[in-house]
Amino acid sequence: VTAALLKGCELTGEPAGRQIWHRPAAREGKASTGFNPQKNPNPSDALWREQRVDAWRAAGKSVPDASWQPRSIREAVRKAMAWYNVLQADDGHWAGDYGGPHFLMPGLVVVWYVTGRPAEMLSPDFQQAMAHYLRVHQQLDGGWGMHIESPSTMFGSCMCYIALRLLGVPRDDPAMVKGRVFIHSYGGGIYTGSWAKLYMCLLGVMDWEAHHPIPPELWLLPDWFPFHPGRLWCHCRMVYLPMCYLYGKRFVYPDAETDPLIASLRSELYCQDYAAVPWASTRELVAEIDNYSPVHPLMKLANGALAVYERHAPSALRDWVRARGLRFAIEYIGAEDLQTNFIDIGPVNKVLNMLSRYVEAGCTQHTDAFRRHMARVPDYLWVSEDGMKMQGYNGSQGWDTSFALQAFAEGGLCDEFPEMVAKAYAYLERTQILCSPESRKSPAFAFEDCAMRKRFYRHVSEGGWPFSSAAHGWPISDCTAEGLKAVLAMRNLQCIRERCAVIPDERLFKAVNVILTLQNVDGGFATYENNRGYRWYEWLNPSEVFGDIMIDYSYVECSMASLSAIYAFHQAYPAHRSREVQEAIAAGRRFIKSIQREDGSWYGSWGCCFTYGTWFGVEGLVLSGEPKHSDALRRACHFLLSKQNANGGWGEDFTSCYDKAYAQHGAQRWGNGGSGVVNTAWALLALMAAGSPDGAAIKRGVEYLISQQRDTGDWDQEGITGVFNRACGISYTQYRNIFPIWALARYAHEYERHAA
Ligand code: LAN
Question: For 340, which of 265, 604, 661, 662 is 20 to 30 Å away at the CA?
Fold first, then answer.
């Protein structure tokens, strides 16, 4: 793929929050961005940003440059905001690359292939741009990691290898030859992680006998049963749902036996003859490099018992129960499709649901459901200078916008950028999940009805904010909380009052209701739902490659956001559910303190890593009324100060998340002298919030951020800053703008009050 193909893509933003890359429009004569994964595998989102700059200039507006040298911290904030203004999408959100994981797009490619390669799903341009992505991320050892910063794993390698072949790269292409050497050196495809095995079974390059049972019958258990799939973390639940359907159907690509590419893959992927592989005995095999959470003996036992059931249960009984399980599963899949406007909760169930609906209809593309599914595939695709990837979500629009607004609010410069701020506020306003009489007519909102909600294990949605767009519609505790905080911080500003619709109090009350109902008995907050299961569910984690996926735990991030939001709300509306709010805050603070680690830090589960967690822990305590200089805050500051680098910054490597220990030595492989701007900003925000007396350390951190600001007002994309399930990195390309702006804004506000 030439750079020209990738460069020409354009992005539109309707309806609100939708990010779609289209067929390239000619944009000749642009220099290539020189992406080099060996130097840094994190792309800088140059394509999208360049397009914004062009559009900005075409409208006759100027982009900040070297002729503007900020003379104060406040002015550096102003310049950074001026640059951020250029980047804003027309509907008010900030678009960006939300890629990182390598196993998502291959899943889509497999589904595209087995459903007959519909061009409406992946056009030839898209196919090429995807192949380009897979090629540039192949590592020197021939393999691929689970995500862009990960060393090669069998999971990543088998998925990416297969995807490249399905996208038309020939068997003897040097990339494929190298890929095979890697895969064979770890024993061949039978040693890959179980999620890759599932796709291989669907494609017909592995026998279903090689896969542990995924019984749809589990859905038929009574709700009170101690182990019930309805109690799983929603992402785990929604992924195993289509998996159990496809397993129950034993779906295999209909042309597998005649397609020469499948025959070839069967000989490429294994070290032995395909026909001779003793499939059933390979079920438990997994390469050491993939085995992040080894399958627990209890799960092994369960797998054994289920295998006996599959083989020996009286077939009449088994088929009868199976048919009922499958019926419920496909009904549930259909409900999820409707509730999310066919976006689905995430990229994995998106493609598996799409395949399930195809199978349900007797393997035809000609159904309304399948067409609606295909129409929502581009929502997940993004193009950066490393090619086209499938993102971890349909974007991070809502989340980034609510942080950006809070950062602006602290900077006190909103009235200098009234259009930008008002547009962002309007985006948040439109993104809150509402069930108005009009929207109730849409099938998606029929599910707010109580019986349906219960049937499909959904929490209350109304009043919540999603991570991405209203169309996605799954509310999340901390997204709701950050949305609410942003609205509270902005709504009285003049630029908002003059330009934006008033958000009625009722809507804020609904947001608070969502937050209050999400508090767990331990006082903390989980992600989308209350904690419904038990810790021992983790013994039944079948995934090998991910940690802590079985239930929704209380997290420091979700807890801090929720607490600080209801605290801020309580200041504004002291009479509303006053006692409940106060009790929730007290319990939440106790929870946050209870999970502070010995060394004063908090482990971050969704960002890298202790710096992120500690920022949340500190803000959570401070914003919910913890006295300054308390013991917990003092210890947190001590922790952060002990990690400051010689150049004044902070930096943490992704391996912190994976190893659950501060990556002191690997800090920011792709950063600068061990420091990275995002980590530095988090540390500074925390130190300032906690009122650290070490003003000199804070000043050095601020100077570091200033020294890294580029001529445009931007900062560089450095190491990966997001994570999920302990083991997978995910890109947040907005963070390099939002958090430095926020930290500098706070500094300017607290230490430079009188500067221009
Ligand atoms: C996300 C993205 C947002 C994130 C925050 C809101 C930042 C966090 O504070 C709570 C957890 C949450 C909602 C989150 C959970 C896990 C997600 C959905 C993701 C990291 C985006 C992608 C990831 C999802 C599980 C990826 C698909 C892979 C599977 C293993 C199913």
Answer: 604
